Amino acid sequence: MSGLFSKFQIAGVDTHKKVLNLQMNEELSNRLKSNIGSYIEDNISVLTRTFGDPTRHEDGEGNLLVTGDEIEPICDTISSNKKFIKDFGTGWEIKVYNAQGDIAYIYSDDKFLDKPELHLDSVIAKGQQEHDENAVRLTEAVLNAVGNRN
Fold first, then answer.
1. What count of Cα atoms within 13 Å lies in the side-chain half-sphere of residue 94?
2. Quick check: 96 and 104 in contact, CB under 8 A?
3. Tens-level pLDDT at each residue, the chain (150 residues)
């Protein structure tokens, strides 16, 4: 388990509420931010909508790679550790924060209750709308500039 913890530190424990808080190191936090940014850009740019592959940031189950590769294993390991369960019981909520202290993931009972991926659809939709509006304005400006008003 020590290898899993190399990218996290324990930020706090509340035994009454059964909450364990972990904080990512700066590198992992930056990778998460980068993956989210790339995922959103892939989904709102014309070229990648036409030619790109937004799934290159996913693990095949809809999780960003940083979630599937880095966050889920440590949550699974803690929540299924026999000694941990024997000593402290089940039903723990694991909250994972980024390096800046913002909550990024909430995990309990073998599933994520919240993670950045759940919010990306609305961000992508908003970005898509802004992208389309900008594309229309840009197209109109180009047509006006060349004098073609058909």
1. 24
2. yes
3. 555 678 899 999 999 999 999 999 999 999 999 999 888 888 877 666 677 676 788 888 878 889 988 999 999 999 999 999 999 999 999 999 999 999 999 999 889 999 998 888 888 888 888 888 887 887 788 778 877 655
